[in-house]
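TICKET #2291
ISSUE: user wants both folds in one file
ATTACHMENT 1:
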Amino acid sequence: MENTINFLYLFKLLGNFFLHIWWIILPVAFYNLFELLWIDFVAGYSAHSFAAGKKFTLLEIIPPREIERGPKIMESFFVGLSGTLAGVDNYSKYLKGAVFTDPFSLELVSDGGKIHFYIRTETNHRNLVEAQIYAQYSGAEVVEVEDYCGRFPRIIPNKNWNMWGTDFEFVRPNAYSIKTYDRFEESITGEMIDPMAALLEIFGTLPPGQNAWLQFVIQPLSERWSAGEAQQAVLNKITGRGSEPPKDIFGHLMDVFSNILNGLFGTVEFKSAEKKEQMPLEARLTPAEKDTLKAVEEKLGKNCFNTKMRLILLGRKENFSRSKVGAIIGAIKQFNDINMNQVKPEDTSKTYANVFRVGPRADFRKRKLYTRYCSRSTDGALMVFSTKELATMFHLPDMNVKSPAIPRVSSKLGSAPINLPID
């Protein structure tokens, strides 16, 4: 009986407490729900009209005959793209669907073994892209081309075409880095190994009628991302300063209620002001942990991009083959580091199905992935790449990559004489 009275008293006390602070809790809770549902709606519908007014240009980058420098110069290109980051006012965000900055799409394409490098950009940024490419690769050519997706049916698979594809995701949180270009080095001679060499060789061996498309849709992030709770939690976990994951508003509210209950009914505890003497950080970390910490700190110190990475293989049904899938995924896995971060196919996007209605469900996934690729959508799993990681995975190959499938500028280009007459 006494326990029942205590519970009733507790519920009454909590009810009175809620009556006094409901005007604080409910608006906060419902605002988060409103923002979650409304932003999803406006980004899915109103954003189409907002984006419909934008024009996009597809540029093909033809590498120069000789590139003596490695992927590091491409990092400067991505730093230049990060300058397009612009703030979005509340009117544009909540009513027009402008919840993103202008995206860029980096695309590595094999058309029957012929390799192409494409960059799709909002037309207003075309001059910026061209200037950055010419600044880093003075002998390259930049040519506007028609969208190659237009040469294929609007819906694949169909009775004549088949495909396979997947999105990619990180194994660990975004703050962890993948293996970057400075770690692709021959240990004896110290010679730089082009990180994209293996992938380009596989793309170059596709037979006629087979196509492979690798896409990175990137959007610059604010520098504030690096100082976010999730990123700092990773640093705290590595250094031993704490490993609790960041909490949302509901987590903080639960802390408030639990502390109130502990204060009312819990026992009084006194914490000692003395701190345990800890070993220096250098002594506590293993060599692998030191490398990981260095890579995380380096990544958080660079400009970063929200990135959608996806891969598609497609071809006519009579000669479509998935035999290259394992080789391509294996070439992408060379960027993985078990001690840091790894890129892997995202399970829910893979174009297959099991057990029930296998064929129709697999075809539905294929059509959805194909449509998202051609529209350069960022729907689905996203990753955060730094400029260094992007330069590792997408750059013009150096002169050591001899694949004949890579088109190159036929002769070295020079600047025009400064004394040409002007009509």
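ATTACHMENT 2:
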Amino acid sequence: MKIVVMSDTHLNRVTDEFKGICARYCNDADLIIHLGDWVSTSVLDHLSQYPLEAVAGNTDNHLIHDMLPAKKVIRADGRRLGIIHGWGSATGLRGRLHGEFSGVDAILFGHTHRPLQQQENGIFWFNPGSVFSGRATPERTLGILHVGERLESEIIPI
């Protein structure tokens, strides 16, 4: 199962560049996961043409928070994936996020704008970075998660 994971789009509208990114990476995906900080509901509307699971982020307005939960657990090819945006300082974030889920195989999160792929204590941690708005790094990225017998991931520079 191929899952495109993105976060922190921070777009006020759907741009031609975003449409191109979606056409390139989402058309052959089994699922798209967006981890919040959309900014505009138009981005959510655009991604809704694909099989989509999503959560709201800390900078999203009340319209997005009314449509999406702050966190959820989804099943993908027999795996339990916790999806959440994140909040506060990057320091200690994984500890805070770990407390939000139990019995998951992976925790997918955004917020830091920094890509991460790490197996630790039986949990696969995955942050796809930011599609458009890098903070500490100018690198713009999204992620691909392959779910099967194992969880495998890629960070894709844009």
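RESOLUTION: both attachments delivered.
EXTRA DETAIL ON ATTACHMENT 2: The domain at 2-157 is CATH 3.60.21.10 (Purple Acid Phosphatase; chain A, domain 2).
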